[in-house]
């Protein structure tokens, strides 16, 4: 899956306050689905939907122990978001460095080739 | 700034060149081909730009035999301090990210700050992301044992 699609799932999963609260709860440790539903003023069915979105985003992993479903928080997709930021930071930093180098080269060209006529900005 | 809570890549650079000259380098097709999406081994194939609000740019560079297209639409153009465009690289996804270029004139030269905001794929998530992203990252970073 391309990174952008992964990030979309991550963003969508994080966009809802209930899902963020579920994640906060899970980040304290593995939790049974039924226990997880308790503090929220919504139905187990509704909590299940939220959990499925978190699973789709890879932020939550489910395992079965007998009849219990246990959920845990898997933070790896958040790293993808951090990676996106770092990638784009370094891309823009490199572009700005290239621009700086180009402008300084233009200046240097003007200095090294002084002309008595009125100089226009370099056209190429 | 309302944008500070979405997923944002931010970077600054100080130029010895004056703000006007740096600003103009974003809109001059000859110069853009030399720096904006140019990579050391790439070959610039196309540079088209319509430098007005609502106008678009289209820059294609060939990298390892592959044409990488960069598309933008200008949202704000305020010479010499600010450019804002919606930015898309179709190869990497359908989202149009918002890129803001702030140019702050200094006594000598200028400081440029780029703010690149990841576009949420649809409006549904935008609100929640804007409100919630910082909280969740801060909270989870704590849990993951990182220093704030």
Short characterization:
The complex is a heterodimer of chains A (124) and B (148). Chain A has 124 residues and is mostly helical.
Characterise this structure.
The complex is a heterodimer of chains A (124) and B (148). With 124 residues, chain A is mainly alpha-helical. Chain A has a domain at 3-76: Winged helix-like DNA-binding domain superfamily/Winged helix DNA-binding domain (Arc Repressor Mutant, subunit A, Orthogonal Bundle), CATH 1.10.10.10. Chain A is built from 5 helices and 3 strands, in the order ααβααββα. Chain A has helices at residues 3-14, 17-26, 33-37, 44-56, 76-112, and strands at 31-32, 60-65, 68-73. Chain A has a 3-stranded antiparallel β-sheet with strand order 1-3-2. The longest helix of chain A has 37 residues, at 76-112. Residues 117-124 of chain A have low confidence and may be disordered. Chain B has 148 residues and is α+β, with helices and mostly antiparallel strands. Chain B folds into 2 domains: 7-117, Alpha-D-Glucose-1,6-Bisphosphate, Chain A, domain 4 (2-Layer Sandwich), CATH 3.30.530; 121-148, no CATH class. In chain B, 24% of the residues lie in helices and 41% in strands. A 7-stranded antiparallel β-sheet of chain B has the order 1-7-6-5-4-3-2, with helices on one face. Chain B is globular and about 45 Å long. Residues 1-5 and 122-127 of chain B have low confidence and may be disordered. The interface between A and B is large, with 41 and 44 residues.
Core attributes:
heterodimer; A: 124 residues; mainly alpha; 62% helix; B: 148 residues; alpha+beta; Alpha-D-Glucose-1,6-Bisphosphate, Chain A, domain 4; 2 domains; 3 helices; 7 strands; globular; disordered N terminus
């Amino acid at each position: 899956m391309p990174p952008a699609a992964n990030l979309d799932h991550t963003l969508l999963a994080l966009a809802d306050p209930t899902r963020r609260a579920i994640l906060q709860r899970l980040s304290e440790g593995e939790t049974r689905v039924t226990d997880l539903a308790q503090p929220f003023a919504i139905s187990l069915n509704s909590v299940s939907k939220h959990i499925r979105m978190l699973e789709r985003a890879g932020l939550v992993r489910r395992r079965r122990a007998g009849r219990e479903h246990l959920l845990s928080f898997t933070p790896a997709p958040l790293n993808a978001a951090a990676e996106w930021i770092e990638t784009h930071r370094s891309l823009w930093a490199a572009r700005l460095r290239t621009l700086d180098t180009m402008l300084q080269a233009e200046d240097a060209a003007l200095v090294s080739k002084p002309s008595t006529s009125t100089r226009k900005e370099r056209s190429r | 700034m309302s944008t500070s809570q979405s997923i944002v890549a931010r970077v600054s650079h100080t130029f010895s060149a004056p703000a006007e000259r740096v600003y103009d380098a974003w809109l001059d097709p000859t110069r853009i081909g030399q720096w904006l999406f140019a990579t050391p081994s790439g070959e610039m194939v196309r540079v088209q730009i319509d430098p007005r609000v609502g106008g678009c740019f289209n820059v294609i560079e060939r990298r390892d035999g592959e044409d990488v297209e960069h598309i933008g639409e200008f949202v704000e153009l305020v010479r010499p301090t600010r450019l804002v465009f919606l930015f898309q690289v179709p190869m990497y996804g359908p989202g149009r990210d918002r890129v803001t270029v702030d140019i702050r004139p200094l006594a000598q030269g200028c400081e440029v700050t780029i703010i690149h905001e990841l576009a949420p794929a649809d409006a549904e998530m935008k609100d929640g992301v804007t409100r919630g992203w910082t909280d969740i990252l801060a909270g989870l970073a704590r849990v993951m044992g990182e220093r704030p």
